[in-house]
TrEMBL record:
<keyword id="KW-0378">Hydrolase</keyword>
<dbReference type="InterPro" id="IPR000560">
    <property type="entry name" value="His_Pase_clade-2"/>
</dbReference>
<keyword id="KW-0735">Signal-anchor</keyword>
<dbReference type="GO" id="GO:0050650">
    <property type="term" value="P:chondroitin sulfate proteoglycan biosynthetic process"/>
</dbReference>
<comment type="subunit">
    <text>Interacts with B3GAT3; the interaction increases the 2-phosphoxylose phosphatase activity of PXYLP1 during completion of linkage region formation in a B3GAT3-mediated manner.</text>
</comment>
<comment type="similarity">
    <text>Belongs to the histidine acid phosphatase family.</text>
</comment>
<comment type="function">
    <text>Responsible for the 2-O-dephosphorylation of xylose in the glycosaminoglycan-protein linkage region of proteoglycans thereby regulating the amount of mature glycosaminoglycan (GAG) chains. Sulfated glycosaminoglycans (GAGs), including heparan sulfate and chondroitin sulfate, are synthesized on the so-called common GAG-protein linkage region (GlcUAbeta1-3Galbeta1-3Galbeta1-4Xylbeta1-O-Ser) of core proteins, which is formed by the stepwise addition of monosaccharide residues by the respective specific glycosyltransferases.</text>
</comment>
<dbReference type="InterPro" id="IPR050645">
    <property type="entry name" value="Histidine_acid_phosphatase"/>
</dbReference>
<dbReference type="Pfam" id="PF00328">
    <property type="entry name" value="His_Phos_2"/>
</dbReference>
<keyword id="KW-0732">Signal</keyword>
<dbReference type="InterPro" id="IPR029033">
    <property type="entry name" value="His_PPase_superfam"/>
</dbReference>
<keyword id="KW-0325">Glycoprotein</keyword>
<keyword id="KW-0333">Golgi apparatus</keyword>
<protein>
    <recommendedName>
        <fullName>2-phosphoxylose phosphatase 1</fullName>
    </recommendedName>
</protein>
<feature type="signal peptide">
    <location>
        <begin position="1"/>
        <end position="18"/>
    </location>
</feature>
<dbReference type="GO" id="GO:0006024">
    <property type="term" value="P:glycosaminoglycan biosynthetic process"/>
</dbReference>
<keyword id="KW-1133">Transmembrane helix</keyword>
């Protein structure tokens, strides 16, 4: 079965919504299971399509929703880079041909795409923290390089930026018309796909994209842990989690048979094929509607893809149950959450610097943060995923500040471990800032062992 056929079959996998709006596209961006709009059983093709996050018509979202007497004070955005070319090549197969130049009249389209290319091409004088200043500002290879952002990836983040602009700037006027560099905090890893994704979002978001006001800081770690990256206990949890993954794979005889079949088709040892992580390349074929590769021994097919994707879904499910990843996540996510809380506290005290923060990151950045927040049912970060923290002030009680947490446009505030019961006691549609502060400064460590009181103490606990 080719990829196009799978897309057509997908129509029959998604039941029509029985809600009064009957907006089937809305179900595609949900992160929590919905018995009305989702397939009755986990379907690997459906999950893969959600992961692709194909650009579509204007997305409906819950960002910026609050009672009229609440004032938006600051916004903190965590994104995964957009759609990219694979990081791995399937051995002995023809290289996947995808064009990474940006062409305004080619799908997927965005009205700002042509202007984005023009603006980026004039940005050679842009000043970023080293080594970011050596990276290209937009994808430009006729044959994509490994890991390079595609036109789809650029359009995904132009859409994200436009959506956030309509909400945060046009509706809530978060930034003044004379905004300055100091009011933005921009940070990215040293990959071209994260820098370019951040620039695309900013170009869609800002009313006046002025190179003199744009300054990205470089983050060497995908965990954005800055000077707090050394954490032996976190590494211990990661090793245990990786061992759990290994044992789960050994138990899956269907997965082993599938890898064996695929290895025969490409004529390499099974171990070599598995090391090449074929699902990464196959997902790119799937998302771009390109047939899976063939050799003289046969073709890789949809059945192979579905077996590996199903195993990934099972792995995520067991990961949540075994809790080893939670330990890793609590320590891995603490530095970036602590930064965010500190920035919120300064804004709550009236500070006007860094009121819009953007972290342009990876799935391995967002996934631990989601886990640490207790969002156990949140889907694995799709291409161009966005996780947003909003800080609000109650105009009727100016000293009171509240937080909302949104994932891909869905309000997940009351799914978080630090605020899951608050709505039962309060009619307000958000969570007190002090709940998040207490969680990051105390409860994250208590959740690990019940005795540690600081990040350093938790990371260096003896007896591991």
């Amino acid at each position: 079965m080719d990829v196009l056929t799978a897309f057509l079959l997908l129509v029959h996998l998604i039941p029509v919504s029985a809600t009064k709006n009957a907006v089937s596209s809305k179900s595609r961006k949900r992160i929590m299971p919905d018995p009305v709009t989702e397939p009755p059983v986990t379907d690997p093709v459906y999950e893969a399509l959600l992961y692709c996050n194909l650009p579509s018509v204007a997305e409906r979202s819950m960002e910026g929703h609050a009672p009229h007497h609440f004032k938006l004070v600051s916004v903190h955005v965590f994104i995964r880079h957009g759609d990219r070319y694979p990081l791995y090549a399937i051995p002995k197969t023809k290289r996947l041909e995808i064009d990474c130049t940006l062409v305004a009249n080619r799908k997927p389209y965005h009205p700002k795409l042509e202007a984005f290319v023009s603006h980026m091409s004039k940005g050679s004088g842009a000043s970023f923290e080293s080594p970011l200043n050596s990276l290209p500002l937009y994808p430009s290879h006729p044959l994509c390089e490994m890991g390079e952002l595609t036109q789809t990836g650029v359009v995904q983040h132009l859409q994200n930026g436009q959506l956030l602009r309509d909400i945060y700037l046009k509706k809530h006027r978060l930034l003044p018309s004379d905004w300055t560099t100091d009011q933005l905090y921009l940070e990215t890893t040293g990959k071209s796909r994260t820098l370019q994704s951040g620039l695309a979002l900013l170009y869609g978001f800002l009313p006046d994209f002025d190179w003199k006001k744009i300054y990205f800081r470089h983050q060497p770690s995908a965990l954005f842990c800055a000077g707090s990256c050394y954490c032996p206990l976190r590494n211990h949890y990661l090793e245990q989690e990786q061992h759990r993954q290994y044992l789960l794979r050994l138990k899956n005889s269907q997965l082993e048979r599938t890898y064996g079949e695929m290895a025969k088709i490409v004529d390499v040892p099974t171990k070599q094929l598995r090391a090449a992580n074929p699902i990464d390349s196959m997902l790119c074929h799937f998302c771009h509607n390109v047939s899976f590769p063939c050799t003289r021994h046969g073709c890789l097919g949809m059945e192979h893809f579905k077996v590996i994707k199903t195993h990934q879904i099972e792995d995520e499910r067991e990961r949540r149950e075994k809790k080893l990843y939670l330990g890793y996540s609590l320590l891995g996510a603490h530095p970036i959450l602590n930064q965010t809380v500190s920035r919120m506290q300064r804004a709550a005290l009236g500070g006007r610097e860094e009121i819009f923060a953007l972290y342009s990151a990876h799935d391995v950045t967002l996934s631990p943060v989601l886990s640490a927040l207790g969002l156990a049912e949140a889907r694995f970060p799709r291409f161009a995923a966005r996780l947003i923290f909003e800080l609000w002030q109650d105009r009727e009680k100016p000293t009171e500040h509240s937080v909302r947490v949104l994932y891909n446009g869905v309000d997940v505030t009351f799914h978080t471990s630090f605020c899951q019961d608050h709505h039962k006691r309060s009619p307000k549609p958000m969570c007190p800032l002090e709940n998040l502060v207490r969680f990051v400064r105390r409860d994250m460590f208590l959740a690990l062992d019940g005795s540690s009181t600081s990040y350093h103490e938790a990371c260096h606990r003896e007896g591991i």
